[in-house]
Amino acid sequence: MKKLVLAAVVTLAGSTMALADPVLGVWKTQVDDGNYAHITMSKCGDAICGVISRTFNAEGEWKSDNIGKQLVWDMQAQGGGSYKNGKIWQPSKDKVYKSKMALSGNSLKVSGCIGPICRKQTWSRVQ
């Protein structure tokens, strides 16, 4: 009986920690090519992924064809708000970059590189 209870506690603790990743939720990107988006970050297996959930332009919210498309994938939590080994898609250039992220409170620094060429943005948490 003690082994069963211990196994249940370990399983519950592991699943709670997996659900509690602080980067999960909705993030607002910086403006790129006149547009910005809300990205919903969630678990996808052992990694973090982000999907475009809303899109905006100078007039306000609009229904882009990119809604529902994956923007971030394969991002691995490293602890301490650091994530790496992921990929990120830049819709305005239709390019995929190697990516990493750094979380600090309600600010998420996202960078992506192809070789020596890197792009950076700071995203803000949507409350």
TrEMBL record:
It comes from the Bacteria. The keyword Metal-binding does not apply. Residues 25-125 form the DUF2147 domain. Residues 1-20 form the signal peptide. The keyword Signal applies. InterPro entries: DUF2147. Keywords: Signal. Pfam families: DUF2147 (PF09917). Transmembrane segments: none annotated. PANTHER family: BLL5882 PROTEIN, BLR1215 PROTEIN. This is DUF2147 domain-containing protein. The lineage of its organism: Bacteria, Pseudomonadati, Pseudomonadota, Alphaproteobacteria, Rhodobacterales.
